[in-house]
Design goal:
Helix content is 37%, strand content 18%.
Length: 167
């Protein structure tokens, strides 16, 4: 039996504590990512990360958590793979680099740092109820906004394919 080819890696970022509404949105993003045959990458802890991993798990997908600590304690139980880094917030760069595209759901300063890392690395960033950033060079938006999980994942696919997709 041949292994299923996973299409893309999509990093889903957001705060470790969030409202019920943002958790539901993150869950739906995770289900959508899995349903479209992609790998979900996240910071591996609670809040948005946990909800997105839960959605990916329920959707039959694969989720990878890039953890800030030296062990797996505190990791979301919904992760298929958890990777301890002992890098604290520096692991945000790895989360951003690991995705072919990034979807931000809400979030605080850690999310903002992941958005910045992603933009610096040339990754497309899609946001749902997240930071509003002024236009970048040439008047182009720093990130594309979406109103739903389906819109966000479709935008991530479209934008990543313009940049050559999987790297």
């Amino acid at each position: 039996m041949a292994a299923r080819r996973l299409e893309m890696y999509i990093s889903v970022i957001g705060a470790s504590e969030c409202s019920g509404e943002l958790a539901r949105t993150a869950y739906e993003v995770g289900r959508e990512v899995a349903g479209r045959g992609h790998v979900l990458v996240c910071g591996g802890l609670g809040g948005v990360m946990d909800a997105a991993a839960h959605g990916a798990s329920d959707g039959g997908g694969v989720s990878v958590g890039i953890l800030p600590g030296a062990d797996r304690r505190g990791a979301s139980r919904w992760l298929a793979v958890s990777i301890p880094t002992n890098m604290d917030n520096a692991r945000n760069a790895i989360v951003a680099l690991s995705g072919d595209a990034i979807i931000a759901v809400g979030g605080g300063y850690g999310t903002l740092s992941e958005i910045a890392f992603g933009l610096k690395m040339g990754k497309p960033v899609v946001g749902i109820a997240t930071w509003e950033l002024e236009s970048g060079p040439g008047g182009l938006p720093w990130l594309e906004t979406a109103g739903s999980a389906g819109e966000a994942v479709a935008a991530a696919e479209r934008l990543a394919s313009r940049r050559g997709g999987r790297k």
